[in-house]
Structures are given as C-alpha cells and as structure tokens.
Fold Sulfotransferase domain-containing protein.
Amino acid sequence: MSHAGLTLALLDRTAGRYAFMVDSSKTAWGSLGAPFTLRRKLGDQFHLVHVVRNPRAVCWSNAGGTRKRGGVVRFPSLRHLRTAFGWWSANLSCEVFGLLYPKQYQRERYEDIARSPAECLATLSAALPTQGGATPGAEVHGNRHQLRGNQSRYESIKPAEIREDARWKSAMPAGQQTLVAALTWPLRLRYGY
C-alpha cells in the first residue's frame, strides 16, 4: 500500500471520531507525491504543514548523530550526500504544493516548534480546516514517536515538555557541517539557516 493509500485508509477508519488527523511523513523517498495525492482525494479538507529543519541537523541525525546497528554509520559524507538530496527533494515538493495551493499550505520551522510549542499549536489549530481544534496546553496521547523518538512513543506529553535537539552543533565535525551547508545553501538560506 502506498503512503497516501495507507493515510486515506486510516482516515476512513477514524472519520467522525477526531477533529483532524496528523500524518507526520518524515521520509523524503517514496512520499514526495503524497501531499498532491491527498489533496486530490480530500480537496479543501487537506492542509499541508511543511515542517523544515536545519539540513545539518537532519544529516547528523541520519548519519553520525545516532547509533545504528553495530555503531556509527561508516562514510558519513556519502550518507550526507544522499540525505541532502532527500532534504532538497522533500522541501521542493512541499514548496511546489505551497505555490499551487497557498491557502492549504503553512511552513513551520522545527526549532520554532520546539522552542514555543504552545504558540505553534495555537497557530496551526487556527489554520486547520476543522471545527474546533487542538487545545494549546493539552496533553498529547497515542503514538508520539514523531515528536520525541522511540523511547517515549507511548508516554503522554505536554507541549511544554518538547525540547529542541541541537547536539549536532557541537558534535558534528566542522568539515561535515561545511559539506552539508554547501550542498543545501539556497533552500537553507530561504528557511533561515
């Protein structure tokens, strides 16, 4: 089943029980067309929230910053090339969606969400095509893997407990930071990185 197909099946199953459903697609590969497919199927009820993150943080997380089976990923520069290309592809796909459907598009920076989650939730809630919306200080229940990672996927959390992961700034070697910065500079600058 495709990403969009799975999302639509889940939406059919939960329709009527929730004000809105969040699909937090993180992977560039295989889901570039998902926003367009979902918009075609859901029409004005679909709203794309494009969350951007510093590409150096994304590359560090994908290659050197997290442990993989058996240790740190070998050849991080090659992994950075692939990740930077994926970062470009995913963000350009979202940018095109925003140009075509500006009323159904909103961009947020990961760092802003982590620093002021209640404010970002209030802004998002006001923009979503629903009746009602999220309560800015409410606890978040269910699978929270997308917010805080595997270790806390079943814990209830409050937006105030969300913290930015900025370890890459001190742990990522300068040469790797420079490589990723050079590969991603035009969009990186557009997003304020």
In short: The longest strand covers residues 48-52.
